[in-house]
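This week, look over our next protein:
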Amino acid sequence: MSKKVISIVTPCFNEEVNVTQCYLAIKQLFEGPLSDYDYEHVFCDNDSSDNTVHLLKGLAAQDPRVKIIVNARNFGALRSNYNGVMATTGDAVLVFLPADLQDPPEVIPELVKHWEAGNEVVYGIRAERQEGLLMRTARRVFYRLVRRMADIDVPVDAGEFQLIDRKVVTTLRQFEDYYPYIRGMIASCGFKRVGVPYTWKARERGYSKARFYSLIDQALNAIISLSNVPMRLCMFAGCGIAALSILYGMYALIMNLVYYRQLAEPGIPTLIVAVFFFSGLQMFFFGILGEYISAIHFQVRKRPLVIERERINFDKPAAEEAPMPARAVGVNGKHMAVA
């Protein structure tokens, strides 16, 4: 009887100090507590400029379970991650295992146990975070804000560190999203699910490639892809401010009738403040409207989610033991040798 296959997806960008340790951690896991399962480890490289791809190719030449997707350029972590999930073949897929192992591999056996118990989605809950108070608080507020705004039940403190059944992956293929917010897409699929708490570890080697702007970009994408609440808030705020403006206008009219021609000059500061206030408010509303319009713009243009330079080891079965010459798939679909 053939073993069930677990797929592990690891997106990476300039992670030469971490990819080997990440590979070894998974290898040891499936030689130990998960020895009853076979696996494939899919690394999605986002056009690294260091030795990441070179190291991955060396691992792939020795171990056919290591599969590599090399992007033609940096398409962002979420797109690359989603593309890797779509390339998996396992009975269950660990959607995201970071190369720096901040989401610890030792939690995976617990996820597999809950999956075998009949749960199609087993998500990790980052109950504790080994990071600064400011970022920890910001993430906590964000998760709860998204849950309150979304019209689906999005688990709080849960990222892409989730084990999902093959049927969930098949469902995800039906999504056509130019900027996939993966955890939200999984939540929108439904299915039976359960959470497993763990401690999100501090990075031990290298530094995070997630800059402040990219975090803001991902946060806005999460809110816009899951909710129309920001647009509704703008509408309600606009109506409220218009009502207050009418009341203020009535007040100003009464005061000018009572103090006829005595309040003309004092009203000038009020006018200046009102002009700047409403101008700023309009720019804020236009910004929110622009986010939704840009999302529609990119969605309707139907650009490729990711353009790949090559694929390695995808033409080999995961259970194959003897190393064979690595091959890759070019963007034109033809096979070409990899040194």
Summary: The mean pLDDT is 79. Strands lie at 5-12, 38-45, 66-71, 92-94, 121-129, 158-165, 193-200, 308-312, 327-329, 335-337. Residues 147 and 154 are 5 Å apart (CA to CA).
